[in-house]
Amino acid sequence: MSSSSLKSLLSGAVLLAAPLALANSTTTIPAFDAKIATARGASSPGGTTVTRDEMSGALHTFIDFDDGVVDAAERTYLGTKVGNAAFLTGVEETAKKFLTDFYELNDAATTPAPLSLYWLQDSPEDLYGAGGPLADASTILEGFIPYGQGVANQLTLLETLKSTQEFGYGAPNSSFYPITESELITTLSGSAGFDYETPSQDEVNGAAAFITQISHNSHRLYQASWACFRGCQGDVGGYVIAAVSTDRRFVRVVKVITWVE
User: What is the mean pLDDT of the chain?
Assistant: First the structure.
């Protein structure tokens, strides 16, 4: 990876780590509406149909322009859109699912659920069934929330990973967002490790199967970025994948290094 590309990634991570804290629902809701209106325009990438990418871009307004967590006013507003036949007219099915998944994940909780995460006994290579740069760059944790004590939501995932020593250096510097299994494959197929090597297809397939073993029935897959700019041997970062079970209590997390400078 070129130095300019690395600097671009670093700059983006810094921006995500320091969002516009003064923004709130009076700013984010109109911004969301404006993006949806643009997405419905005939000259937009999806024409008059709102695509998944367009819905994602609109919903990111609530986390990129704010403190990274959807607040009560924003969630109440989104609740008027989920299942609203008039609003959903002209919205792709995949975009509708992104809206539903985003709304579930960002439930405006103010207290994280007690999610405990631990290292697995086997190595990433053994768990993926194949070795290579992806396995070498992976840190894997999993754990659960005790019954009746909450579910895995945005706040729980972020706060748990920030405070879990086993997660290692660095912490999420962006909020989580829903992804599909095909998007997971694309992410896992990217270069990994300190030498920016490309994983083999066997390694990617093995990692995807291992991750989605938890989310196969629930289709709850989330992704965030992470970075460490101080206290590390150079600046380093990458992505985090969280797979969540049907009852939203069991979580498997895979953290991957993708860049260093």
Answer: 90
Q: Show the tokens assigned to 67.
A: 């403190």
Q: Which residues pair with 10 in a beta bridge?
A: none
List the structure tokens of 80.
């008027």
The pLDDT of 187-196, averaged and rounded, is 96
Asked if 211 and 243 count as a contact pair (C-beta separation under 8 A), the reply is: yes
Q: Cα separation of 209 and 199, whole Å?
A: 15
Rounded Cα–Cα distance for residues 70 and 56 (Å): 14
Integer Cα distance of 137 and 82 in angstroms: 38
Q: How confident is the model at residue 68 (pLDDT cuts 50, 70, 90)?
A: confident
Q: Look at residue 66 in the predicted model and tell me its pLDDT.
A: 62
Whether the Cβ atoms of residue 147 and residue 249 lie closer than 8 Å to each other: yes
What pTM was computed for the model? 0.89
- CB burial class (10 A; 0-12, 13-18, 19+) of residue 241? buried
Q: Give the DSSP letter string of 162-182.
A: HH-GGG-S-EE-S--EE--HH
Closest by Cα among 11, 36, 24 to 65 = 24
Which CB contacts under 8 angstroms, 24+ apart, belong to 231-239? Answer: 231/169, 232/169, 232/170, 234/260, 234/261, 235/10, 235/260, 235/261, 236/169, 236/170, 236/260, 236/261, 237/9, 237/10, 237/13, 237/170, 237/173, 238/137, 238/192, 239/187
Q: Please choose, from the candidates 144, 146, 141, the residue with its C-alpha nearest in 3D space to the C-alpha of residue 166.
A: 141
Which stretches of the chain are DSSP H helices? 3-17, 25-39, 52-59, 61-64, 72-79, 85-88, 93-105, 124-128, 133-136, 154-163, 181-188, 201-215
